[in-house]
Amino acid sequence: MKLETYKKGPIGIFDSGFGGLEIAKHIAKELPQYDFIYLGDTARTPYGSRSQEVIFNFTKQAVDFLLKKNCPLVILACNTASSEALRKIQQECLSKKYPDKKVLGVIIPAVEEAIEITKNNRVGVIATEGTIKSGAFTREIKKRNPKVKVFQTPAPLLAPIVEAGEHNSEIAKMALQKYLKPLVAKKIDTLILGCTHYGILEKQTKEILRQNSGQVGRDVQVISEGKVVAEKLADYLQRHPEIEKQLSKKSQHVFLTTDLTTEFQTLGTQFFGKPIIARKIDLP
Ligand code: DGL
Question: Of all atoms in ligand 1, which is nearest to the CA of residue 45?
């Protein structure tokens, strides 16, 4: 597919690497007719332990690239980019250069879902250090319902464990145990998996919560972002026909990366759920 031939444009999906393919998978399932360009910044991943300034600059370069490829709508399918760069991109970049285009993140869909399903108003979040430090989950939850108490734990070992293909191993169980136990002790009834990679660990997470359920873990609902983001996106497009009508619908999916590693093909296929062929591009 020649990207330049679009009259209407594809949805842009950006992630620091291949974790966002989990979100892209659900978007492809929920909205099969829509075209998308997926861009993974594999040359510079991970973003999770980087400074806000660097995360913003990298994300802005990627978003600029996708907007120039005629994407009317870009989804930051990365929690770290959504929490450290999205607001600034919306406020400073979009309104001046691209007033008709939209950039959305993954934090708000997960937050809305958590607020809807929590019964005891105690929500737990696990995410990268960058996402937790930004305070984005707490801020967005409190904005919508100040009564909800948020308990956060950075879980820096989980993304590398998933990337090493160790998600079914004892190491994964031990790491999950370490991160989830203190949250269960806080009597959370809802847990947000606030990182693209953690969707791969959903089953294991539920299992660990169940094991800790001597007290309260049995009742913890787990929010994995892929499905939630895709459903909320479908709803958003219904409510925003001015964006929807700009989107092309030939069911074409393009995968771009800033570094073409064999990992992207293998792990990417695992995250997306079927084989993908990626093309390398350079971000300015
Ligand atoms: N995609 C990132 C996120 O959701 C995880 C990987 C990274 O640290 O870049 O936060």
Answer: 9
pLDDT at res. 7: 76
Q: What is the pLDDT of residue 215?
A: 54
Residue nearest to atom 2 of ligand 1 (CA): 78
Domain ranges (residues) in the chain: 11-105+226-280, 107-225
Does domain 107-225 fall under CATH 3.40.640.10? My reply is no
**Residue 267 C-alpha from the chain's centroid:** 16
Query: Is 3.40.50.1860 the CATH classification of the domain at 11-105+226-280?
Result: yes
DSSP assignment string, 139-196: HHHHHH-TT-EEEEEE-TTHHHHHHTT-TTSHHHHHHHHHHHHHHHHTT-SEEEEESG
Residues of the chain with pLDDT under 70: 1-6, 213-218
11-105+226-280 against 107-225: fold identical: yes
Asked whether 131 lines ligand 1 (CB < 6 A), one says yes
Query: Is there a catalytic annotation at residue 78?
Result: yes
The span from the CA of 174 to the CA of 181, in Å, is 11
- Residue 93 annotated in active site: no
**Does 128 contact ligand 1 (Cβ within 6 A)?**
yes
Q: Which atom of ligand 1 is nearest to the CA of 46?
A: 9
